[in-house]
């Protein structure tokens, strides 16, 4: 076995799929956004609002550099692949699965959820622009590109089938 890392844009299902995989494969589930919130004692939205994205990214890199050893299912924040050192650490002894969804599906899934804005653009425009910008990094930093549009049960079954 190996550590299973889930990457992808907001709304791609990393957390939901990760929790299902954790049950299916009997491995602990770790979410980098939760580790960040624990370390800072505040929500991701509050960190963005009070200290800005750059400060959030520093804590994100810090929790990634201090991840506990051992096999687990690791769900990551959508921007984790922007940093080369994050990617290097995440790929060590791991299989990285990129959950790929369309911008339209992302907007459908995240509308109404509490997520800090990444730009001053309207949500649909923001998602289209940032997803296009990040796509090369998602692809080059993953071992598998998985169709994330099919719902968490099917996606987690596919990943479990690959790693078992
Ligand atoms: C971010 C995605 C969020 C969270 C933060 C930044 C991003 O995680 O890490 O708001 O830059 O795409 P999710 O992908 O779980 O929403």
What does this structure look like?
There is one protein chain. The protein has helices at 14-25, 32-40, 44-51, 53-65, 84-91, 103-110, 123-140, 152-163, and strands at 3-7, 29-31, 73-75, 94-100, 144-147. The chain has a single domain, classed as P-loop containing nucleotide triphosphate hydrolases (Rossmann fold). The longest helix has 18 residues, at 123-140. The chain is of the alpha/beta class and 164 residues long. A 5-stranded parallel beta sheet has the order 2-3-1-4-5. The protein is 54% helix and 13% strand. The protein is globular, with a radius of gyration of 15 Å. It binds shikimate-3-phosphate. The site of shikimate-3-phosphate has 10 residues, from loops. Residues 10, 14, 33, 44, 77-79, 115-116, 118 line the site of shikimate-3-phosphate.
Number of domains in the coordinates? 1
Q: Could you say which small molecules are bound to this protein?
A: shikimate-3-phosphate
Strand order of the largest sheet: 2-3-1-4-5
Counting DSSP H or I runs of 4 or more residues, the number of helices is 8
The radius of gyration over CA amounts to 15 Å
Using the alpha-carbon principal axes, give the shape: globular
**Which stretches are low in confidence, meaning pLDDT under 50 for 5 or more residues running?**
none
Helix content: 40-55%
Structural class: alpha/beta
Mean pLDDT: 97
Second-tier CATH architecture: 3-Layer(aba) Sandwich
CATH superfamily: P-loop containing nucleotide triphosphate hydrolases
The succession of helices and strands, N to C, reads: EHEHHHEHEHHEH
| Main sheet summary | 5 strands, parallel
The portion of residues forming beta strands comes to 5-15%
- Main CATH class: Alpha Beta
